[in-house]
Amino acid sequence: MTHDEVCGTQARGRRAARAGSIVVAAVVLAGCAGMSPEDLGGLFGRGQAPLDEATVASGLREALSVGASRAVERLAERDAIWSDPRLRIPLPDEMQRVASTLRRLGLDRQVDELERAVNRAAERSAAEALDVFRDAIAGLTIEDAFAILRGGETAATDLLRSRTETRLVDRMRPIVHETVSAVGLARAWQDLRERIERLPLVEPPGDDLEAWVAAQTVDRLFGQLALEEARIRRDPVARTTELLRRVFGRR
Fold first, then answer.
1. Cα distance between residue 120 and residue 77, in whole Å
2. What is the crossing angle of helices 184-197 and 209-234, to 10°?
3. Tens of pLDDT along 49-66?
4. CB 224 within 8 A of CB 133
5. Cβ neighbours of residue 70 under 8 Å, at least 6 residues apart?
6. pTM for the whole thing?
7. Shortest CA distance to 117 belongs to which of 184, 173, 168, 172?
8. Quick one: DSSP state of residue 237?
9. Which of 119, 120, 196, 222 has its CA 20 to 30 Å from the CA of residue 236?
């Protein structure tokens, strides 16, 4: 064959190969027309299989477990609440009025001691929340999980709060009592309440210090948990396990 004939044969071969490739691609794409995006991603090596109910539920439980652990660890550290103005627990209103009077009388040290004890009690009792949280998280249903996944940034926190708040307050109160009852001013306040309660037709002070501190501690715990939940939903860096990345990366 001449040089020109050889070149012509090679060119016709290349055109036939391209045509064959186009036909194959068309056949493949036609077969994929009814496939979901997840199926297509899997076919071409991208993406993952669709999430099943069990995976979603496990992911939500893990997200809550991670968030709850972080929240409890944050607040249970010594001085974590006391040293942060955004978290510090004030005395209840009625006690604050009494405390202001005592400060004017030069009893600043005693008032400071009580305020610090209140926040120490909150830090100590915060650690009690973890077991309560774990029990509630273990009881989440498939329906709970999908409601949380499709809900707002604090859907999981809100659900957990509705199921644990009363139990948390009850569990924290003995720890609060043990901590603040060692402070003279707290004992004096409690003695005053008890004496007034025995008087007829006299309304005792309305502030129950133990209940106040426990409720304020719970409020701060759920505030921290809400922040952690929002981070996991928004920030891929906060999804510290493969399961969290799968579930929250596919929303």
1. 10
2. 120
3. 566 778 778 878 888 888
4. no
5. 224, 228
6. 0.70
7. 184
8. G
9. 222
